[in-house]
Design brief:
The complex is a heterodimer. In chain A, helix 1 packs parallel to helix 8, helix 7 runs antiparallel to helix 8 and helix 10 runs antiparallel to helix 11. In chain A, 67% of the residues lie in helices and 0% in strands. Chain A is globular. Chain B has four helices and two strands, in the order H-H-E-E-H-H. The two termini of chain B are 33 Å apart. Chain B has a two-stranded antiparallel ribbon with strand order 1-2. Chain B is mainly α. Classes of the chains: A mainly alpha, B mainly alpha.
Chain lengths: 288, 109
């Protein structure tokens, strides 16, 4: 399969206007989700500095939420770190997909771009690049900073701060925000039968091991064994809708309830394809 | 104000950054075997499902984990259903919170 060829369909000005519109939708989502993360972190006993350190340094929504659960469960730090690395490994493929577009930027700038590379930044920026047929550094920063980094961090700050004003969060049902968010995010990651099996086995193993040994061990066991069970589903029966690293997978991995326009464009920018998406190891870059 | 978890955040950031940066800084390094890619794709659903399930099904009192059945199960199921149906996490969270708040107000939970 040959890599997609980028053909410009919009001018930079028009495409940036669309990028801003899509970024506004993403920003609203990031604000809501970041606020909920702040509340959950506060509820788990994180101080403002600790919650903000997570959002500023890790800057990965699902991993931050998961960290709240790990800490509550008393999981040892090495376990937290290993699970975080596994959970965030999908960024490897987003980075690979963007690499051909950004290869001419200075190393220091690419290093900075990497820190703010999220599912949303990937989807917004690669769709923008494809619309204009070339990279646009300002477009990347709009997608990464204006759409996600700033809203997410401000919302985290608000969530932790305002969460402290609520005397009894459990009376308002706020203690259920964390498991409900984890379950909802899990649904957002499901793109085929393998994920369903991995999630079901992961949950079952986690509960059983937690009851037998303790919650910290249980979560690690579920997180490690669940994917192995998912891999037992034959590839032909997996019904995979969104191979990782594609625009479609960015949609699934993104904060839910964001406009789908950018994600759809990321997948169809090369014109109609007969069901063949670029594989996980095929960068979606410009024609060389 | 505690700062113990700041170091954890730094370590989490340290293991996250290479995934984001290596292909951008050293193109080609991301070419992992297919089985590794498959495994990594499944880690997210498994970990998040494990966290959700343990959060609502296991309670620990006096260092003894015990199976728990409660209205929180319904709240999580509502979140899953709404996420599946509407692709909107906030609807799911709102429904979950509302369900639990009402149940506790009425003394059902």
């Amino acid at each position: 399969m040959t890599p997609p060829v980028a053909r410009p369909t919009q001018t930079v000005t028009v495409s940036r206007r669309q990028l801003w519109q899509e970024s506004a939708g993403i920003a609203v989502s990031a604000v809501g989700f970041g606020f909920v993360y702040g509340l959950a972190a506060r509820g788990a006993g994180f101080s403002l500095i600790e919650a903000m350190a997570m959002s500023l340094i890790v800057f990965a929504g699902a991993a931050e939420f998961a960290a709240v659960g790990y800490v509550v469960a008393g999981l040892a730090w090495p376990g937290v770190i290993v699970l975080t690395a596994l959970l965030n490994a999908r960024h490897l493929l987003y980075s690979a997909a963007l690499a051909p577009w950004l290869k001419d930027r200075p190393v220091a700038e690419r290093a900075a771009m990497a820190h703010v590379l999220t599912d949303e930044a990937f989807a917004l920026s690669i769709a923008h690049f494809r619309r204009i047929g070339r990279p646009d550094r300002r477009g990347y920063w709009i997608a990464a900073i204006a759409a996600t980094f700033i809203p997410w961090n401000l919302a985290t700050l608000a969530g932790v701060t305002l969460g402290g004003q609520i005397a009894d969060p459990s009376r308002l049902g706020l203690d259920v925000v964390f498991p409900a968010a984890m379950a909802g995010l899990c649904v957002g990651l499901i793109t085929g039968r393998r994920e369903v099996v991995a999630a079901a086995v992961g949950a079952t193993v986690a509960v059983l091991v937690s009851l037998a040994v303790g919650t910290g061990v249980g979560i690690v066991a579920g997180g490690v064994i669940g994917p192995l069970a998912g891999m037992l589903v034959p590839r032909g029966a997996a019904h995979e809708e969104a191979p990782i690293g594609t625009g479609a997978s960015a949609e699934h991995y993104s904060m839910p309830a964001v406009p789908h326009t950018a994600f759809e464009q990321a997948d169809r920018a090369d014109g109609p394809r007969t069901g063949d998406r670029p594989g996980p190891d095929e960068p979606m870059g410009p024609a060389s | 104000m505690t700062t113990n978890l700041v170091l954890l955040a730094v370590l989490m950031g340290a293991v996250t950054y290479p995934s984001r940066a290596l292909p951008l800084l050293a193109p080609g390094i991301e070419r992992l075997p297919r089985w590794a890619l498959d495994y990594l794709q499944l880690v997210g659903p498994a970990v998040l499902a494990a966290l959700a399930a343990v959060s609502v099904m296991v309670v620990t009192t006096e260092d003894q984990p015990a199976f728990h059945v409660g209205v929180e199960w319904l709240a999580v199921l509502a979140s899953i259903a709404l996420m599946w149906w509407r692709h909107n996490l906030f609807y799911g969270l709102a429904a979950a919170v509302l369900l639990v708040a009402v149940a506790r107000y009425l003394g059902w939970a």
